[in-house]
Specification:
The structure holds 2 protein chains of 2 kinds.
Chain A (H helix, E strand, L loop, with lengths): L1 H4 L1 H137 L6 H14 L1
Helix pairs in contact in A: 2-3
Chain B lengths: L25 E2 L2 E2 L4 H18 L10 H20 L8 H18 L17 H23 L17 H46 L2 H45 L3
Antiparallel strand pairs in B: 1-2
The chains are: A mainly alpha, B mainly alpha.
């Protein structure tokens, strides 16, 4: 077993070179490089968690804004609906008023026309009476030779006309 | 080595040989020959450095290599967080170095470089090496324990809730089990690596001897041995990772004792 047979002659060099090379590994790799590798890992971990937190915050903000937008939208829609209803009511009232004035004018026209018609009829009646009275005078003078005054002739004619 | 070709010595692979004529190098009176063992420590250290350098791009979206390095550091970090807690973070450099250095040593020692005439050397199959690593871990436990808790650290030998009449019995047992820790750490790794390599060497000698002994032996012995070797190599790759993990895990458990004294 060389480990034991060569122990006396080699142990110093074994220990010396092991301490040299393990020391190099410890100070150069272990102390020098490993902490920087671990820093990189830690840096990445913090960056990832930071990014995740930022993404979560952005999402919360988007949700909040959407909720606010929806609320605003609902309010605006309600406002629009109220506006439309108001306009509709106003238009209805206006058309009703205009209809009422038109109706009034039509009624007035109608009344006036009726008045005119009645007046014309009266006038026409009176004229017919006068003509009938004159005709009666004329007929009576020609047939009976009696001179009837205009008033009684007209009364007689009116009586006949009224009784048909 | 030509003389040894005749018989296959499964232990020869653990022989330490000075390289580049450095057999007589001395520092302060002790021999520091640059051996094949030291060469493979250098290769393992360099390979580990190259591996981690590939993960230093520091990209926010990591590539495959960076991902692999970050998985390794994350693995050690998680292990320490689970076993020691928040205070375990400062031991990540040490445990990472320990785990990866042992892992690279174990895996590099398994490389089939014999095919191209090179001799891979698994320095973790030498207890001088595993012993030094175990003593390092044990020293850290002692230093941290006494620095954090002072003499109160001795209460580690009295488990929580021990009835006081039992203390004279329990404390020596706990003390012994505590003192055995560095030995068990060192021997576990050394034995696992050596046993695996000896087994592979023995099986490969079966293959060679079987083929040399003729076609009947070749079919009956060499082929089953080769099939078994393939399986054992896969197992050894697993053992390499598991032993590195066990070394690092036990070290972190011992550090937990020192950090969080019951």
């Amino acid at each position: 077993m060389p480990q034991i047979e060569q122990l006396a002659e080699t142990y110093t060099s074994q220990i010396f070179w092991l301490l040299v090379f393990f020391g190099l590994v410890f100070f150069v790799v272990g102390r020098g490089m490993v902490p920087r590798v671990m820093d990189t890992v830690a840096l990445r971990d913090t960056q990832i968690s930071g990014d995740l937190a930022a993404a979560q915050a952005a999402r919360d903000e988007a949700d909040r804004q959407e909720a606010a937008w929806r609320e605003q939208e609902n309010a605006r829609r309600a406002q629009a609906r109220a506006l439309i209803a108001e306009a509709k009511a106003r238009a209805a009232a206006e058309s009703e008023a205009r209809l009422a004035t038109a109706q009034q004018r039509i009624d007035a026209d109608l009344n006036e026309a009726e008045g005119r018609i009645a007046a014309s009829r009266d006038r026409a009646g009176a004229q017919i009476e006068a003509i009938a009275g004159e005709a009666v005078q004329d007929v009576v003078r020609r047939l009976a030779g009696i001179e009837v005054d205009a008033a009684s002739a007209r009364a007689a004619a009116r009586e006949v006309m009224n009784h048909g | 080595m030509a003389a040894e070709q005749a018989k296959i010595d499964p232990m020869h692979q653990f022989t330490i040989e000075p390289l580049f004529g450095s057999a007589d190098w001395e520092l302060a009176g002790v021999n520091i020959a640059f051996t094949n063992s030291a060469l493979w420590m250098a290769i393992a250290a360099f390979a580990l450095w190259a591996f981690v350098v590939g993960g230093m791009k520091r990209q926010v979206v990591p590539g495959r290599w960076q991902m692999a390095v970050e998985s390794a550091t994350g693995f050690i970090d998680d292990m320490l967080a689970a076993n020691v807690g928040k205070a375990g973070r400062k031991y990540v450099p040490y445990i990472f170095s320990l785990f990866m250095f042992i892992l690279f040593a174990n895996l590099l020692g398994l490389l089939p470089l014999g095919v191209v005439g090179l001799h891979p050397f698994t320095f973790t199959s030498h207890f001088t090496v595993t012993g030094v690593l175990a003593i390092l871990s044990f020293s850290i436990v002692l230093i941290v324990g006494f620095a954090r808790h002072g003499l109160h650290f001795f209460s580690l030998f009295v488990p929580h809730g021990t009835p006081w009449p039992m203390i004279p019995v329990i404390a020596p047992i706990e003390f012994i089990s505590f003192m055995v820790r560095p030995f068990s750490l060192a021997l576990r790794l050394f034995v696992a690596m050596m046993a695996g390599h000896v087994l592979l060497e023995v099986l490969s000698s079966f293959v060679i001897s079987g083929i040399n002994a003729g076609p009947v032996y070749g079919v009956l012995i060499a082929i089953p041995s080769l099939a078994l070797m393939v399986g054992i190599v896969a197992l050894e790759v697993l053992v390499s990772a598991i032993q590195a993990y066990v070394f690092a895990l036990l070290t972190s458990l011992y550090i937990n004792d020192a950090e969080n004294l019951h």
